[in-house]
Amino acid sequence: MTLEQFEALLASYGADFSKWPDAQENTARAFLAQREDEVAEQYRNQQKLDDALACITPQKPRAELYQQIYRSFTPTLLADRFGFAVLGNFIFGPMVHARSMALASVFTLTLLGGIGGYLGAGQAQELSTQTEILSLAFSEYSFELETDT
Amino acid sequence: MIFGSKNRNPNGIDPDAQLLAQIAKGEPQAAKAFVDRHLPSILGIAGSMLGDAGAAEDIAQEVFLKVWRYAKKWKPGAAKFQTWMHRVTMNLCYDQLRKKKEILTDAVPEQVDEHNIGADTQLIQNERTAQIQAALSLLAPRQCAAITLCYYQELGNIEAANVMQISVEALESLLARGRKSLREKLNEPKIEIAKPMKDGANK
């Protein structure tokens, strides 16, 4: 281990060698023993920072927080079980894959479009027949505009 | 410089796999066991990053809601579930910090007046802890996250880098810059608390 490597790792992981990567832990201890004079000040500074960081004890969860989170499990699960997605699955069957869902949608729309087109065409034909009958019925009459003059 | 990580999961099997399968089936006991196992670390990360106990609890609740929803979609193999969970926690903390950014100031909370030291050791200890906590939360969020994961959560460097989705080299750089910045903040000159004027001082 070179001095530069030691300094870089010291700056990153601090003075507690147990927090260093496994492969470097023992090497670092040996390096410090051999070249303590050169790195003593940096090592002390990092030790002070480690001590400062150790002052903070991680926040411990309150019993109420545990309870709140336990309770959140069931409603979330129920919402997932009886939500719109599940309702869709229940009505249309389980369509797990998005691609198959898209294909099913395209198929349904095409089918509905086809039926709509067929019915619309029938209606139009009927209207056109009615127009022809009316045209024939009125074709025998002629109208003249009468004026008083 | 990249060196191997601490190997904290030698067999490579995700310790949460079985619990998650049970959670996906809707077993409340599995959910309870999962919360017992992970809540302290989730709260620890959020607490260290935000420096606010209430906000950290909100984040923890949100993370577990995501877990309940995500459990049935999760497939073992690719990454450890805990890594995903830590990542979610950190991202929620980043969002929270972004919202709070405008009200954050650069000032580290005041230290106890030296004249009062010795009067109440516990109080002083609390003040010191608050000062360090504040200095930590004033770091750049990613530096704070790196220190939290490596120092307080004791993750190995590879695992911490995975959580942060960065290289080990980048993690080491964040750690070094974070520690340097923290040392500077803690070494800033003390801010004197305004002392009450003694008798005759205002004459």
- By DSSP, the count of extended strands of chain B is 0
Oligomer: heterodimer
Number of strands of chain A: 0
Mean pLDDT reading of chain A: 81
**Proportion of beta-strand residues of chain A:** under 5%
Largest sheet of chain A: none
Largest interface (CB < 8 Å):
A-B, 38 and 50 residues
Strand portion of chain B, in percent?
under 5%
List the helices and strands of chain A in order.
Answer: HHHHHH
Distance between the termini of chain B: 64 Å
Order of helices and strands of chain B: HHHHHHHH
Describe the global form of chain A: rod-shaped
Helix content of chain A: over 70%
Stretches with pLDDT under 50, minimum 5 residues of chain B: 105-115, 191-203
Question: How much helix is in the residues of chain B?
Answer: 55-70%
List unreliable stretches of 5+ residues of chain A: none
Q: With helices defined by DSSP (H or I, 4 residues minimum), what is the helix count of chain A?
A: 6
If helices are DSSP runs of H or I spanning 4 or more residues, what is the number of helices of chain B?
A: 8
- The secondary structure category of chain B is mainly alpha
What is the rounded distance between the termini of chain A?
124 Å
What can you see in these coordinates?
The complex is a heterodimer of chains A (149) and B (203). With 149 residues, chain A is mainly α. Chain A is 77% helix and 0% strand. Chain A has helices spanning 3-13, 22-34, 36-54, 63-82, 84-92, 98-139. Chain A is rod-shaped. The radius of gyration of chain B is 21 Å and the shape is globular. The model of chain B is unreliable at 105-115 and 191-203 (pLDDT under 50).
